[in-house]
Model the fold of this input.
Amino acid sequence: MRDKAERLPSAISFGREICGDLAVAERREWLVTNALGGYASGTVAGLLTRRYHGLLVAALPPPHGRTLLLTRLDETAT
Done:
């Protein structure tokens, strides 16, 4: 189990200077891949500024190819 934990990517954190300014946060993008052709991507601000941004983009067999399955999640506090 220790070997697997050592291969996991480390977390990246952004400070107030980036997250506190929408203009800066929307220009910073992130990308996480799964080594199977699928990925998740977006901006630090949580905005979907490009057509390929999404939380779950799956690599399906042909003829479908990469398919956007989940674009975003919206939270509601009650």
User: Anything to note?
Assistant: The helical segments are 2-7, 16-19, 22-25. The radius of gyration is 15 Å.
